Each structure stands twice: as C-alpha cells, then as structure tokens.
TrEMBL record:
SUPFAM superfamilies: Galactose mutarotase-like. GO terms for molecular function: aldose 1-epimerase activity. Pfam families: Aldose_epim. Its EC number is 5.1.3.3. Keywords: Isomerase. Signal peptide: none annotated. Transmembrane segments: none annotated. It is an enzyme of class 5 (isomerase). This is Aldose 1-epimerase.
Length: 306
C-alpha cells in the first residue's frame, strides 16, 4: 500500500469551509470556501499531497521564523551553529519542524490537534513539546493555535510563525492589500535586517490604505500593528470582487508580507506570515522569547473569507 509523501491528510469541514492539514509539518495544505453554486474557492495556495510544500506553503515555522544569519547565534553565554537550510543566502530558515512527523492527538470533523516532540540537536540543544490545533467554524473560518512547552532543564530561545499564501484567484498585480502597520524592516540582498524598523509613510511599503500592488515587490516584516478591540491585527487581500483576511493575536507583533516573486508560480498568492519575532531574532535577540523550563507559550491566528 502506498501512502502520500506528506503523510496522513486530516480533512476538516464546517459550514462552507473545508481544510486539509498534513502529517508532515502539521502544515495547512488546503483551505477553501464553498460558493453558492457548489464550487470550492481556494483561500490559500495549495499543493499536491504527494508534493513537498513548495516555497513553505502553509508551513509552521518553529522554533524560529524567517532567517538566522549564517545559522550562528549566542544564547546563555554559549555559541551555536544551525544547519544552513538556505545555503544560497548562507542562512538557516524557518525552523526545524517543517518536514517533521506530527502525531494526531485529536481529530474531529471540524478540528484537528497535532503534537511533535522536538528533541535537542547540535544547533538547538533544547527540548520542546509542540502542539498545533486547527479549528474550522462556519462563521469565523479557520483558527490556528500554536503552543510550545519547554520540557528541558534549561531556558530555550523560542519564536514561531506560519507561512500561508492568501489567494483570491487573481494575479497580485491586480489586487489590493491592506495592513495597518506603521513600520517595516529593511533588509539586505540576503534578506537579513539591515537596520531598525522604519516608518512606512511615503514609501512603497505603506499598505495602510489598501493600495493596488501593481509591480511592487515586498518581502519584509512589518510591526507597529494596528489592532481591533479583540487585539487582532488584520491583513486583507482583495481582487476580482473577492477578499480573504488573515488575523493574528497579540502574541504576534510582526507580520511578514511576501509577494511570492520567487515562488513556483510567481505572484499567484500573497505570503502573510504572523510572527512572534522579526527575522534574525536568534542572533539579534529582538523579540526573542526566553522559554523557561516548564513554561508554555501560545499564540493564535486565523483566516476567513472577506
């Protein structure tokens, strides 16, 4: 009997929403909305069950999001070196669990909860128990909760993020993007921060008024995020009479926006990545979470049709 290379496929359904989460990486492979005519409208870019997630489609980024320059960092008075998972930029990228086996702890028609035991390695000699819970609701769409518990004997550096690509079925050049963010993080040609976050006012990175993207290329982290009364920051992609929205809670002070210029199908969807810390946080220490022995950290984000 053959099996999918991304492992078990956990299907979820609630009202018009459908989702598929994979055993590999606890990744979001599909999220769709059933329309009045019965057709399924994709809300995120998807890939085949027998295809590793391209360009980090739907991946969870743990225990760091984005890049670590040279894979090198110091923590607790010691120096560490991570494997260079992005050798072309001399970087370690997107954590350690993107291709790992995650174990189902619970699977209901509208909900799945997966766990992973992250054991210590040479570049990250810390011990975490991880949990990812995906819940569909007929009105609220998808909610994802990511949790880390330090089971080891020493404090661990920690950060997380997620990497869905929103889509409205239109090329990004014809879409508008709205994100209430006051500052963006400039980066160098290796995508490492080149200075502190800067004011978006008067720049092509200003997305507060929902500009048409046109030909602008973005692969930057935003902060100074505006939030609603529930503490949620919202990013909205609109085009062709459709909208899709991603929210993140206050555990995520950063949102990476990526116009997918290097994806297999360039600019077909928008990477909107809620993050607990900015790129290179393991090296800079900015926004890094010091997860003490026995401590737990959680954060939530979600996606719904506009």
């Amino acid at each position: 009997m053959t099996e999918m290379i991304t492992g078990a496929q956990y299907a979820l359904a609630a009202g018009p929403y459908r989702a598929v989460v994979t055993e590999s990486g606890a990744s979001l492979r599909e999220l769709t909305l059933r329309q009045d005519g019965g057709d399924e409208r994709p809300l995120v870019l998807t890939h085949g069950a027998d295809e590793p997630a391209p360009a980090a489609f739907g991946n969870l980024l743990i225990p760091w999001p984005n890049r670590v320059d040279g894979g090198r960092y110091e923590y607790g008075g010691k120096s560490y070196r991570l494997d260079l998972s992005e050798p072309e930029n001399d970087c370690a990228i997107h954590g350690l669990v993107r291709w790992a086996h995650w174990t189902p702890a619970e699977h209901l028609p509208h909900r799945v909860r997966l766990t992973h035991r992250l054991l210590g390695s040479g570049g990250y000699p810390f011990r975490l128990d991880l949990e990812a819970e995906y819940v569909l609701d007929a009105e609220a769409g998808l909610t994802v909760r990511m949790t880390a518990h330090n089971r080891g004997p020493v404090t661990a550096p920690y950060g997380h993020g997620a990497h869905p690509y929103l889509t409205v079925g239109e090329p990004l050049d014809r879409c508008t993007v709205t994100l209430d963010a006051a500052r963006y993080l400039p980066v160098d040609d290796r995508m490492i921060p080149s200075g502190p976050a800067e004011d978006v006012a008067g720049t092509r990175w200003d997305l507060r008024d929902g500009p048409v993207l046109g030909d602008r290329e973005i692969d930057n982290a935003y902060t100074g995020l505006g939030r609603d009364a529930a503490g949620r920051c919202w990013t909205t992609l609109s085009g062709g009479g459709r909208s899709v929205r991603l929210w993140s809670d206050e555990a995520h002070p950063w949102t990476e926006i990526y116009t997918a210029d290097q994806a297999p199908e360039p600019r077909a969807g928008l990477g909107v990545e809620p993050m607990t810390c900015p790129p290179n946080a393991f090296a800079s220490g900015e926004g890094l979470i010091d997860l003490a022995p026995g401590a737990t950290f959680s954060g939530s984000w979600g996606i719904m049709a506009g």
